[in-house]
Design goal:
alpha+beta, 4 strands, 184 residues, Alpha-Beta Plaits
Length: 184
């Protein structure tokens, strides 16, 4: 079984969407093995959204701005730092519900349920597609991180690294659901 990290960000918490989002994961057969509310501090936000993201986000945002014909004077690194700092600030802006979900190919399944990073680009039926509409382009024009409801680990390896940032081993549980007793 694979485990993955999900963060219901401050906008999901403040909008009262936690139960509806968790139900989607449970409906898909994923098991919650860890859950807690956290108010992320700067150290945790920086560990989660590492500086290595700055050039990746900067290049992506620059391409978006170039395609939109936007005028700007910032370098790729300055753009990336601005967006990553905004994303960290948003993560620290209120309580986050941190979850560890377990299941077959959990990271991949969760990513499909969540939808595209940009809510505007997420298909109906996904969490972001149904509950959010903000475009990453709009957020970057405002020079801030996007309020996109949720973080989901990109893959199983990333999940392992992220889970230890948010959870101690003793906060994670092993148990069998009624469904597992009959299926496995």
């Amino acid at each position: 079984m694979e485990r993955t990290l999900v963060l219901l960000k401050p906008d999901a918490v403040k909008r009262g969407l936690m139960g509806r989002i968790i139900s989607r994961f449970e409906d898909a057969g994923l098991k919650m093995v860890g859950a807690k509310m956290v108010l992320a501090d700067e150290k945790l936000a920086k560990a989660h959204y590492q500086d290595s993201l700055i050039p990746i986000v900067g290049n992506k945002t620059k391409k978006d701005w170039d395609a939109a014909g936007m005028k700007y004077t910032e370098s790729v690194d300055e753009i990336g730092k601005m967006i990553v700092d905004g994303t960290r600030k948003f993560l620290m802006s209120g309580p986050v519900l941190a979850l560890v979900l377990e299941g077959l190919q959990a990271a991949e399944v969760v990513r499909k349920l969540v939808g595209s990073t940009g809510p505007k680009d997420s298909l109906p039926g996904t969490i972001r597609g149904d509950f959010a509409h903000l475009s990453l382009g709009y957020a970057s024009l405002q020079r801030k991180g996007a309020e996109n409801l949720i973080h989901a680990s990109g893959n199983a390896e990333e999940a392992k690294q992220e889970i230890v940032l948010w959870f101690k081993q003793e906060e994670l549980f092993t148990y069998k659901t009624v469904h597992e007793a009959h299926v496995f």
